[in-house]
Amino acid sequence: MLERLNQAMEHIESHLDGSVDVAELARIAATSEYHLRRMFSALAGMPLSEYVRRRRLTVAGAEVLARRESLLTIAVRYGYGSGESFARAFRAVHGVGPGQARRTGAALVSQPRLTFRLTVEGSSSMRYRVVDKPAFTVVGPRARVPLVHSGPNRAIVDFVRGIPPRTLEDLEKLSDQEPRGLVAVCDDLDPSRAEGTELDYYHGVVTSAAAPQGATALPVPAGTWAVFTASGPVPQAVQELWRDVFTEWFPSNPYRSRPGPEILRTRLSADGTEADAELWLPVEREGG
User: Fold this and answer.
1) What is the pLDDT of residues 141-165, one digit of tens each?
2) Are 182 and 203 in contact (CB under 8 A)?
3) What does the alpha-carbon distance between residue 251 and residue 274 come to, in Å, rounded to a whole number?
4) 51 and 114 in contact (C-beta within 8 Å)?
5) β-pairing verdict for 223-233 and 262-268
6) Rounded to whole angstroms, how far apart are CA atoms 282 and 21?
7) DSSP string spanning 198-254?
8) Residues sharing a CB contact under 8 Å with residue 161, sequence separation 6 or more, in sequence order
9) Whole-model pTM?
10) Are strands 217-220 and 136-139 parallel, antiparallel or unpaired?
11) Nearest in space to 187 (alpha carbons), one of 125, 130, 140
């Protein structure tokens, strides 16, 4: 997988002055567009589109400082329809406009080319199982919240605290299959997985029962799920599990992520500082 990702990175480099087609990158990486975006974001720590933009403006910055061509010629070469749009994008990355950079020889920001390598540590093994699951429904209150990569998600914390205890008790009675009990469900995430983008968050249960009147329901079709378990401090253990799945498990196993909700079941310690977590991710076999 990493070798194919590096071939996709080479393709990006050769098309910085043209169109970078994500569908073509996915073909080179021998995976789906959805999984490529997710893998790249987890491995690189930034969305694929952001990396392409930063690489383009890194190369464009070198040409601005070289003073061999006009700024408009450089802007057009790297896909900007006007000098103004190029200047805005240039300033967002480099902190200075292209005209000023050329006049003053200002120091610019460089986004290095990415190369993915596998580091073998062997310090721990990941606990997982693969489950073929019939269609089910997620039932529970829903909120639109921002994505947070590290630390507590205050929007989710405040939302869950506002759910009446009686509502949660009634929901738990509907739970009739794995993962049992109250679960946290994330759906409709932005493909970039960028910090601050929004997602639908459900606090509810997985059930085959019909949703009560007035309840929010998310139908989920039958499919294959990879189930991962971890234990540790809250929220670090869960966030690190999410990261490790995409940086370690997917590159080492013949599966890729597929669109669908992501389900997290946690059981907190008495003092609320530790948790046992079970993460359910929709997957499919590579080449399937």
Assistant:
1) 999 999 987 778 999 999 999 999 9
2) yes
3) 28
4) yes
5) unpaired
6) 25
7) EEEEEEEEEESSPPPTT--EEEE-SEEEEEEEEEEETTHHHHHHHHHIIIIIHHHSS
8) none
9) 0.80
10) antiparallel
11) 140
